[in-house]
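can u do me a favor
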């Protein structure tokens, strides 16, 4: 039986939407967010206290701009793909703020409801990342940073991803202590640890299920233009 076609350009849009919605749900649950976005989230929490305009979405693309500049310094060159990655970060940032606003209107009563939001957010984020794996369009700086560094070092992407996640989590913990003191954890909580343990296998499972269900194919002849 022939599988239905899922265009890779649509996978890019789906990846953005699922990832933004999942992150908004996890933030609403307040059980701990992904270690990947923890630094940007902690910076948002601190700066938004005195600058209300500095939203989580804004913090995301500002922090990712820093990552892209750091990547350019490490690679000793600035690729066209880096600009597209920043554009993705900006679109994602505005989408995240929209979903954050909508999620804030949903009443959450009790721990069970928070757990439901967290689980839904974790699943949605995994689906979003899996969709990004299916497109040639440039993903956010987080994924691009890992891929580029892995290629430069000649290392496995999974190994570099693990190191990056550990460093990101450590930075998040450090920022929580610096901004809010040792007696208060913000952003990095038990849900962050759970995410670190199950995120990789869950993304792999979702990606495998997608391959079984769909044939991913380009709709536009732009793969070379977005080459990395």
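np, heres the sequence
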């Amino acid at each position: 039986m022939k599988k239905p076609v899922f265009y890779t350009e649509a996978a890019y849009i789906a990846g953005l939407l699922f990832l933004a919605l999942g992150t908004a749900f996890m933030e609403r649950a307040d059980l701990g967010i992904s270690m990947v976005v923890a630094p940007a989230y902690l910076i948002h929490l601190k700066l938004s206290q005195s600058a209300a305009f500095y939203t989580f979405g804004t913090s995301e693309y500002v922090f990712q701009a820093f990552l892209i500049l750091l990547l350019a310094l490490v690679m000793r060159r600035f690729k066209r793909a880096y600009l597209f990655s920043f554009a993705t970060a900006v679109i994602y940032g505005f989408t995240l703020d929209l979903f954050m606003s909508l999620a804030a209107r949903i009443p959450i009563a009790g721990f069970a409801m928070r757990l439901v939001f967290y689980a839904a957010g974790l699943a949605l984020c995994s689906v979003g990342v899996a969709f990004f794996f299916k497109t040639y369009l440039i993903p956010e700086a987080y994924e691009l940073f890992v891929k580029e560094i892995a290629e430069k070092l000649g290392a496995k992407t999974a190994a570099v991803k693990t190191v990056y996640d550990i460093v990101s989590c450590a930075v998040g913990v450090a920022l929580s202590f610096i901004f809010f003191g040792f007696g208060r954890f913000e952003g990095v909580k038990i849900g962050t640890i759970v995410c670190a343990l199950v995120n990789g296998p869950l993304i792999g499972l979702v990606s495998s299920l997608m391959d079984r269900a769909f044939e991913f194919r380009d709709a536009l002849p732009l793969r070379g233009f977005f080459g990395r």
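The chain has a mean pLDDT of 89. hope that helps!!
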